[in-house]
From TrEMBL:
This is Uncharacterized protein. It comes from the Eukaryota. It comes from Pistacia atlantica. The lineage of its organism: Eukaryota, Viridiplantae, Streptophyta, Embryophyta, Tracheophyta.
Amino acid sequence: MHSHGIFTSCPLIFLPLQDPVFEHPSFSQTDIVQLEDEGISDEIKKLAKRHHEQVSKKQGLLDKLLKSASEVKELQEK
């Protein structure tokens, strides 16, 4: 007797956009697509902000490193 996971016997169900589930009077297919687009845009904005923060942090670290290197070079020249 083989043990099967809970979900192994569950079929995958894909609902087309024409399915009655999506036929809510206040939501059209265009509204659903627009909401998805807004979600994608929000995610892009979050990623862009995170990228900017990381670049700024690395730039600060690089500036400190360059300053330290300049100070060491200046001390060596004396």
